From TrEMBL:
Family: Belongs to the LOR family.
Protein's recorded name: Uncharacterized protein
Domain of life: Eukaryota
Transmembrane segments: none
Length: 204
């Protein structure tokens, strides 16, 4: 894995929306209910405990999709796994849409079998997918992953485990994500949701 290097980005990196970009690092706490089978399996808060995002699961005929919402439950993006794909592949659409015109980005594993996490991310306009726009590397099992800009060593966000008495007693998996300045933090959260789903398929 490339050695991380933190280079502050002066231009906004907006994927979902520029209002999710702030000029300073932002720390988000992600709490995942380990046995959740319905809505609310993910809750994302800031360092003061204020709810920033929620994740809802919707299961339809032979299909599952996840909905990233704001604290009030308003849809931000819809995350849909693509069936009949050799790699684990997800498509992310604006709002509650599944219209190709609302596609924001696609994420897929770099190989069918992985010992370590490797996820390549392609923005909607990158139709050739020859070079990724973002990549994720690390160990999901250890909740230690780094998100890079393109196929480079420039870090845009990273996650790390956070243990607490609450997480152990209440069956919750809690970890932190640091999103660097001017990076779309709603986009970063959506990547974490995808990573969780892909690795849940493997029993992680």
């Amino acid at each position: 894995m490339a050695q991380p290097s933190y280079i502050p980005l002066t231009n906004l990196v907006s994927v979902i929306g520029p209002h999710y970009c702030v000029p300073y690092p932002i720390d988000l706490a992600i709490t995942r209910k380990l046995l959740a089978l319905t809505d609310g399996n993910f809750v994302v808060t800031d360092v003061n405990g204020n709810i920033m995002f929620k994740v809802k699961v919707r299961i339809t005929f032979l299909r599952e999709r996840q909905l990233l919402t704001d604290a009030a439950g308003n849809p931000i993006v819809t995350l849909r796994p693509k069936i009949m794909s050799a790699h684990s592949r997800w498509q992310v659409f604006r709002g509650n849409s599944k219209d190709p015109a609302d596609l924001l980005f696609t994420a897929k594993t770099s190989s069918i079998f992985q010992l370590r996490t490797r996820l390549n991310v392609y923005l909607a306009h990158n139709t050739t997918e020859e070079v990724c726009d973002f990549k994720v590397e690390g160990s999901w099992l250890e909740r230690s992953c780094v998100i890079y800009a393109g196929d480079s060593s420039t870090v845009v966000a990273q996650m790390h485990q956070r243990y607490s008495a609450e997480s152990i007693l209440l069956g919750k998996d809690k970890f932190m994500v640091t999103v660097y300045p001017n990076i779309d933090y709603a986009f970063i959260v959506s990547l974490i949701v995808i990573l969780d789903d892909i690795n849940s398929e493997d029993g992680s």
